[in-house]
Amino acid sequence: MASAAESEDFVLCDACGHMIPQGNIQLHALRCTAPPTQASAPPAAGGSSFDSEAEDQMLQAVLDMSRREHEAAAAAAARPAAPAVEHPAPTQTRRRYYRFERQDLDTGEWVPLDDAACRYLSRAMHQGSQGALYEVRHVEGGMVRGCGYDVTFGSGGRGRQQNRMNGEEEDVRWTEVDRDSLGDGPDECEEWACPSCTFGNTFPGGTTCVMCLSMKPGCRPVPLERATNPPPGGFREAPPPRRDGSGRIHPPARPRQQQRQQQQQQQQQQQ
To answer: DSSP label at 23?
Structure first.
């Protein structure tokens, strides 16, 4: 064995007692896990630059480094993981739906708007809008066609709306209802741009641009006797606006409305 060690340049490992090639000292030191022994390796033959004491020091340094790496890895594995940062879930406000009603100008009675209008206006209110434009079908010269109405959301469940054709204004109110009571249709439709004013209309089932009152391409007025799906209270007559000498537009005169207002004033005076 001595002659083989001298010819092949082997050295003795002090830790495990194995003979290892001179060139594999560092690799063996990383793999050797045996406790060190008191045996000392004979000096390397063949003109090696390593003596026994230098080899012992080098092997011990490598073993210490390996031991420290294992201890650090074990300590890291035993250390409790940092708690995951909890991000609060985004708060979602439940969309509320409302039944809108208008106060008839002639009778003073509260008439509900159709389901599509209620869904559309509820969505606009949920988005934080101060008002919205929507469509109402009414009778104009014996023909049923759509007309844009401009609603302004006030406070306390009350607001105002204006007919964009003749300037008439009436009160509106709303109360919260269950979504199922407003039909199965969508809250709004895919936007279509008016070819006249380029306004983007999203009112579901609309036939008229609510901004400039131009008919939607492919739509036309329908005779009253052929009109279907009337709104609550039936189709109402929309008289044309009045113009003064300067050409300014004023809401049309409604005899029944004037009579009702006079009666209300007389009742207030009597009280």
So the answer is: G
Question: What b/e string do you get for 8-18 counting C-beta neighbours within 10 Å, with b at 16 or more?
Answer: eebbbbbbbee
208 by DSSP, 3-state: which?
strand
> pLDDT of 91-136, one tens digit each?
556 789 999 999 998 889 999 999 999 999 999 999 999 999 999 9
pTM, 2 dp: 0.62
Query: CA geometry: angle at 65 spanning 21 and 16, to 5°?
Result: 40
Residue pair 175/161 in contact (Cβ under 8 Å)? The answer is no
The count of C-alpha atoms lying within 13 angstroms of the C-alpha of 104, restricted to the half-sphere facing its C-beta, is 15
Closest CA to 156 of 141, 168, 171, 140: 171
Length of the chain: 271
Q: What is the pLDDT of residue 99?
A: 97
Q: Are residues 105 and 138 in contact, defined by beta-carbon separation less than 8 angstroms?
A: no
Cβ-proximal residues to 132 (8 Å cutoff; 6+ apart), any chain: 120, 121, 124, 125, 150, 151, 153
Kindly report, residue by residue over 171-192, the tens digit of the pLDDT.
999 999 999 999 988 999 999 9
Distance separating alpha carbons of residues 36 and 208, to the nearest angstrom: 96
pLDDT of 54 reads: 74
Adjacent-strand bridge partners of 97 = 177
Whether pLDDT at 42 is above 60: no
Sorted by sequence, the CB contacts under 8 Å of residue 232 that are 6+ apart come out as 111, 112, 113, 114
Please provide the average confidence, as pLDDT, over all residues in the chain.
83
